[in-house]
Amino acid sequence: MLDFEVFSQQLITGLSNGMIIALIAIGYTMVYGIIELINFAHGDVFMLGAFLALTLLGALGMEAWGPSGQVFGVALMLIGSAVFCGGLNWSLDRLAYRALRKSSKLSLLVSAIGCSFVCMNLGLFWGGAPMKVFANGNSAAAPKNFPAIIPQINLLGDGFLRITPADLLVFTVTIPLMVGLTFMVKRTRLGRAMRAVAQDPTAASLMGIPVDRVIGATFFIGGALGGFASVIYSLYNNTIGFQMGTRAGLDAFTAAVLGGIGSLPGAVLGGLTIGCVRSMSDQYLETRWTNTIVFCILVLILIFRPNGLLGSTRREKV
Amino acid sequence: MRWRPGPIFIILALAALLPLLDVVLPPKMQLCEAVRGVFLYAILALGLNVVTGYAGLLNLGIAAFMAIGAYSFGILTCEIYPFQLGFWPALALTIPIGAFAGFILGAPTLGLRGDYLAIVTLGFGEIVQDVLKNLDVVTKGTQGINPLPAPTFGGSEWTAEDEYKWYYLFFALLVLTVFAVRNLERSRLGRAWFSIREDEIASRSMGIRVERTKLIAFATAAAIAAFAGGLSASVLSSTGEPSNYDFQISILALCIVIVGGIGSIAGVLVGALVMVGLNSIVLVKATAWMAANGIGSQGNVLLSPNNWKFLIFGLALILAVRLKPNGLIPPRIERAKQ
User: Fold this and answer.
1) Domain count for chain B
2) B134 contacts A109? CB cut-off 8 A
3) pLDDT by residue (tens digit) across A233-280?
4) 3-state DSSP of chain A
5) How close A304 comes to chain B (CA, Å)?
6) If contacts are CB pairs under 8 Å, which of residues 233-292 in chain A contact chain B?
7) pLDDT tens for each residue of A185-227
8) CA angle A41, A43, A46 (to 5 degrees)
């Protein structure tokens, strides 16, 4: 029997997690659209964003702030992590990828895997920071508890469904970001330059577009979205760890491919689908098989519909 | 023409003489056991080199095939299963089993573009771990399958104390793998792999059956990796837990191939020495040294050499691709200019 209450609750969880996955997936899809690189390090940049948020939270003692102060605190973490992740992603491009623009795609991918490992190791070191929120530097590798500074109440009162402020936060942050990003890509000068570089870098540079700077900007924006995602992920799931980037990255990449890599609405659709598949599989199958199911979706999509749900053969890339 | 020993011969000859050095070294400095690990990873990386170096297909899930080899060795030999084969037949059987697993993964996915294929192999690596962990009825979950038999060679079964016997067994199997791979490299099949790596369309128009040739590369790599897996399970007398075959192992193998010289056998041997040497000799000895001298790792994450592993792997990959794209010992057959 399908219990409607349980089903709807899982749907809400799935959609919330799906929006977070979608935000990460956009980072993959933008970078892939512009230089055809699976930016392996993206998941780990996301992870470091969560660590920065926890550091800010601990250093400023946000747990003790009042309700209005905590709203300010969340905003501060969002902006801090976004700038940090954007900057980090930009630096990775500058230091590790830019010199390889003319080498084979596989060397670029190998370099990205290297960046992913370096970032993961930085996360491990960060986890050993001598702060109370990081367990005073003990057992650096252990998952960290992210304090739930958002009240865990049900906004629907005693209704049969449970929608928490955290659910609300996910949607109030992600939807404006996605709308803003779509506007930027479609309407602004930078967005036009990005689409031009994605289509043909040589022609774009002949038209006077500073290709490297546009690619750098793409990395920054993708990373910043990952930073936003890291804060809402942490506030929503309340546990972070230095290895969470791999899992989140694989989910988000699957989402990007599912929706059609290079397509923004595709990434959102893919993210929501993966989020719901995960929560439904947790509920109706077994949690331990969820990752296997997501992977099988990835393989089946790649084999039977490599352009994804919304991608066409002549797709408009970001 | 006068015979000149090639780099492969020199490396293997040095490795054969290494136990003599152990006789003079003090017990704490002895290297044989650690070098055995270098041999094991060299075999694994030689397998990866077939698919990634020769055929140009990035495989990020080679550890999964190692796991498949280890677990099939375990299931074929352990006394709690019906087969109960000996060491030699079971080790030999890991090769066709591995090849079959490679075939199963490769057949549907080899049509994919290079970077998509890499992601699929990565995902496969994760899934094999999950499946091994979750199917605990068969695989004993995180306990691993044990005990597993050692070879019986001239009478009684070996134990962990027979250090030199194990050393030369690993050495002999490495030499065997080197010869097999070197002959493949120089065969018609090897040339077809190089050709596909450089230009798939041109190869197709020259009459090479691209899909089939790629699939053979994939299956060969999987077979060699499974062989390495069976061997490692035997020396540990246990398959270990599934997470012993995680993404880190695949990346270690990739580092060996990239740092050593992609597509070069001598390069892979040197790469294995450098990377595994760092990973399981320098780091381990440094940890032991620090513990002996009272430099505590408790409370400070930076003081445990093991915590630097990812950083070393990562930097090795970034720097190798950037500074020495052909590796420490470039392959005999130069890659075409990209």
Assistant:
1) 1
2) no
3) 999 999 999 999 988 998 999 999 888 888 889 999 999 999 999 999
4) CCCHHHHHHHHHHHHHHHHHHHHHHHHHHHHHHHHCCCCCCHHHHHHHHHHHHHHHHHHCCHHHCCHHHHHHHHHHHHHHHHHHHHHHHHHHHHHHHHHHCCCCHHHHHHHHHHHHHHHHHHHHHHHCCCCHHHHHHCCCCCCEECCCCCCCCCCCCCCCCCCCHHHHHHHHHHHHHHHHHHHHHHHCHHHHHHHHHHHCHHHHHHCCCCHHHHHHHHHHHHHHHHHHHHHHHHHHHCEECCCHHHHHHHHHHHHHHHHCCCCHHHHHHHHHHHHHHHHHHHHHCCHHHHHHHHHHHHHHHHHHCCCCCCCCCCCCCC
5) 10
6) 246, 250, 253, 257, 288-289, 291-292
7) 999 999 999 999 999 999 999 999 999 999 999 999 999 999 9
8) 110
Does residue B17 sit at the A interface (CB-CB below 8 Å)?
no
146-185 in A: which are within 8 Å (CB) of B? Answer: none
Rounded to whole angstroms, the Cα distance separating A310 from A258 reads: 8
Residue B166 lies in a domain: yes
Within a domain: B273? no
Four-residue CA torsion sign, A180, A186, A192, A197 = positive
Closest-CA residue in chain B for A246? B247
The parent domain of residue B65 ranges over: 31-246
Instruction: Examine the pLDDT at B309 and tell me if it is beyond 60.
Output: yes
Please give the interface size between A and B, counted as residue pairs whose CB atoms are below 8 Å apart.
Answer: 131
Q: How many CB atoms lie within 10 A of CB A156?
A: 11
In percent, how much of chain B has pLDDT > 90? 41
Q: Is residue B337 part of a domain?
A: no
**B336 lies in some domain:** no
A positions 31-70 inside 8 Å of B (CB): 36-38
Q: Say whether A114 and B307 touch across the interface (CB within 8 A).
A: no
CA distance B334 to chain A (A): 15
ipTM above 0.95, yes or no: no
CA A156 to chain B, closest CA, distance in angstroms equals: 38
Q: What percent of chain A has pLDDT over 70?
A: 97
Contacts of A246 in chain B (CB under 8 A): 247
For residue B333, the model assigns a pLDDT of 61
Could you read off the pLDDT of B151-170 as tens digits, one per residue?
776 666 777 667 778 888 89
Domains, chain A, in order of start with CATH, read 4-128+138-304 (1.10.3470)
